[in-house]
Amino acid sequence: MTRLALLRHAHAGDPERWDGLDAARPLSDKGRRQAERLGRHLRAVGDQSDVLIASPKLRALQTAEIVAGLLGVRVATDDRLAGPLDLDVVDAILVDAGNPDGPVLVGHDPDFSELLGALLGLPGMAMRKGAFARVEIGRPLAYGRGELLVLLPPDFQLPA
To answer: pLDDT tens digits for 43-54?
Structure first.
């Protein structure tokens, strides 16, 4: 079984106010705080992520680097995470990454909301910017075969 996680990139501001290329849009200060909070939480609960595989778009890569830095794991990029995704594409990404046990894919919507839904056998599950979901699923990936283990909204608060 694979413990596949999906992390939608953290907040990156309003795309309509960004003058540069979409792929170069960085995280906002809010997005950096979201990624840091998630990384601290995952470290505190002993998360077993072994690699973060990110879209090459800057906001996804920055999200991955912040979280991975706090977990002490490596970051890889895969161009396929910047484009349309389906279960076969995700399976190919995982194969090319060496079939890690606890991968975290870092990418974008609407693909991640649709992908999470497909893993769980639902028409979709909304993933806001900075949301994190962990699904246990057999390989090859198949529609509706996943079990949701964790779903964290982007602005969750750590217990005191």
So the answer is: 999 999 999 999
User: Does residue 12 contact residue 25 with C-beta atoms inside 8 Å?
Assistant: yes
Match 């998630």 to its residue by tokens: 38
Number of helices (H) and strands (E) in the chain: give both, helices first. 4, 6
Distance CA 37, CA 14 (A): 21
Secondary structure (H, E, C), 83-132: CCCCHHHHHHHHHHCCCCCCEEEEECCCHHHHHHHHHHCCCCCCCCCCCE
pTM for the structure as a whole? 0.95
Half-sphere exposure of 45 (CA within 13 A, CB side): 11
The count of other CB atoms within 10 Å of the CB of residue 144 is 11
Q: Which of 124, 91, 126, 112 has its CA nearest to residue 2?
A: 91
User: What tokens does 106 get?
Assistant: 């870092």
Q: Which two tokens stand for residue 16?
A: 């309509």
With both helix axes pointing from N to C terminus, report the angle between 58-71 and 29-44 in degrees, rounded to the nearest 10: 30
